[in-house]
Amino acid sequence: MELNQAELFELEKQLVMLRVESDLTLLPHFPYFSGKPYPLGRCKEIRDEVYTRFVKALESNTSAPFQKINAYLKQGGVIEKAWGSLRDEYFQNAMIIGKWYVDVSNDTVYPNKPRVEIVELDKANFHPITTFEKFSEIAKKYWEVEIYTNTVLPALAPYFPLICVNKKGISWLAAANDNMVSVAMNSQFQLSERVLRETPNPPEQVIQSWQRMLNQINNPRPFCLNKVVR
Predict the structure, then answer these.
(1) How far apart are CA 168 and CA 147, in angstroms?
(2) Got the DSSP string for the chain?
(3) Cβ-contact 129, 179 below 8 angstroms
(4) Per-residue pLDDT for 13 more than 60?
(5) What is the mean pLDDT of residues 7-16?
(6) What are 49-71's pLDDT values in tens digits?
(7) Is 220 exposed, middle or buried (0-12, 13-18, 19+ CB in 10 A)?
(8) Pairwise CA distance, residues 207 & 155, whole Å
(9) What is the model's pLDDT at position 34?
(10) Do residues 120 and 128 lie in contact, with contact meaning Cβ atoms separated by under 8 Å?
(11) How confident is the model at residue 215 (pLDDT cuts 50, 70, 90)?
């Protein structure tokens, strides 16, 4: 799907409007992320909200880029929600429409950047994360965490082989998202096994924190994979 400069400008303008509407909806619910003000750290929530509004807008918006996107969809194309590595600097949620990388949460790491960025995918330096080693490399820099093996819940280690521990000593299982679970399962857990061999065990204080939390669970109930432990 080709878009000329005028069409790219119009598409960006329309997406910025959808992003502003999304911000008004999201801000009251997500004012902070790890102590940082909205929109920092909220790329997934923003991408998903704009995606929903964008799909709805395609039904009635008659601008040139929307017409081209609708034609692309009628020919079997898709608007793909994507999560991965951006320049190996941080994790990012975006949309991919044919040859185009569409980032509607472009300001969630550096707030002075434009809300929306549209570039050709092969120039975006955006890639899926296909190993836990790559995930760990980015997480250490982006989240400022230490990475250890998941020895606290070994039954879940094939799916969530890692523990992240931030500077405040808060820890959580990683990586609790569909993409990394697929990495584990599609490798028949060989990639999980490899990273478990290569990664150090957590410090004793981290293990004790998890043990205290687990001891407080007296009744069977679903375990929250995003549970943070101090």
Answers:
(1) 14
(2) ----HHHHHHHHHHHHHHHHHHHHHHTTT-SEETTEETTTT-HHHHHHHHHHHHHHHTTT--SHHHHHHHHHHHTT--EEEEEEEETTTEEEEEEEETTEEEES-TTSSSTTS-S-EEEEHHHHTEE---SHHHHHHHHHHHT--EEEE--SSGGGTTT--EEEE-TTS-EEEET-SHHHHHHHHHTTTHHHHHHHHHSPPPPHHHHHHHHHHHHT--S-----TT--B-
(3) yes
(4) yes
(5) 97
(6) 999 999 999 999 999 999 999 99
(7) exposed
(8) 15
(9) 81
(10) no
(11) confident
Integer Cα distance of 211 and 226 in angstroms:
16
Q: Tokens 């790559």 appear where?
A: 134
How many residues can be counted in the chain? 230
Cα 63 to Cα 3, 11, 14, 69, distances in angstroms: 12, 8, 9, 10
Mean pLDDT, range 160-188, rounded to an integer:
94
pLDDT at res. 217: 77
Residue 94 pairs in a beta bridge with 82
Contacts of 59 (CB under 8 A, 6+ apart): none
Question: CB–CB of 151/140 below 8 Å?
Answer: no
